[in-house]
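Thread title: Can someone regenerate the structure for this chain?

I was given the following input by a collaborator and told the matching structure tokens would be attached. They weren't. Posting the sequence so someone can regenerate them.
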Amino acid sequence: MQEKLRVAYYLHRFPRLTETFILREMLFLRDMGLDIQVFALMPPAPISTMHQQVQEMLPYVHYSPFFFSVKLHLAQLYFLLRSPRKYFRAFWRAIWQTWREPTTLVRMLVIFPKSVYFARQLKEMKVDHIHAHFVWINGIAAQIAADLTGITYSLHAHAWDIFFRNPECIRRQLELSTQIVTISQYNQKFLAALCHQRNPEDIHVVYCGLDPAEFTPAYQPDKEGTIRIISVGSLIEKKGHEYLIDACMLLVAKGYRLKCFIIGGGPLQPDLQIRINDRDLEDTVKLLGIRNQSQILDQYRQSDIFVLACVVAHYGDKDGIPVALMEAMAMQVPVITTPVTGIPELVQDGNNGLLVPERDSETLALAIERLIKDPQLRMQLGQQGRQTILAKFDIHHTASQMAGIFQEIHHSCV
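Best answer:
Regenerated them for you:
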């Protein structure tokens, strides 16, 4: 008799540097006694840096073989011979969810055999439930497995996966799932309005969580008194890095001595570097590229102010509640950000951080200047920020909520 609840986490790729919050969640669920197994549709990207905690999860990670693998084709035959109706039903339902997005449809056709292979593994491992972070291709893979095996599955909605995609494709995915989880009350209302078959109270809100023991404040002031600003986020439009660069230009023009470090990689790196050069900020603003968690923690300890000037991108994408904001607050670094989507559920203006309008470099510069001039306010906001994380965004609470959701689904289906 299986004692532990066995949950399969379906991920598009593992490990992934930008998804440390999922890694933490899985590790803490394992510590709580759940048997968490990872099923990754794609192998890890060839990057030079990775978080240390990845090693703890690797023994429980499963990858699909390549397309020409005998194992992959045997899995297709397994379900075609035993349950041909289920096999073709899963295939057509996957098409039904994706045909409005041609690129997603093509991806689905590629991962369908892998999804079937995983479904057979789930049966052999006697998995109780499937959980897919992001309403996207791995969520469709979870639906395929559920159609073939009858195992329940939940979808965990975040940001780009619901704000950037075709609304009808999102709605169809949500309606097929056993349970919906999301990361903010803002998202809860958004999804309830999109998916009329679900009441808002039926969509669970589970904030991403941090381990306070991992994020321990240890501020290291600059010996020369230079103010150090940090920003952590992919180099894409919705992170608003261009407005931080322009704010730094305004502050330098006023005579302030500062250094600004932007951590992250992405397609806008060349454009942002040109922006820095055009404003003669090469000695002030540095693009540090991708860093692992320990390197980012070192940067937090050396920083006076954290800025993430989030915006709603012109093509519709926007942030949920950026985990980097939570990390900075946990490290007692005072934060400045914008009231986009669910961010006000984390940052309350003047209480545990500062909020400024999006796409407004002048107001952003004034907010930074306010903190430069008032060390006492920086300390106060930093302390209140950490208290917010301890109260509402602790990974222990997040993992407990997720475990409760999994247990509830399992017991209702037994």
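The chain has a mean pLDDT of 94.
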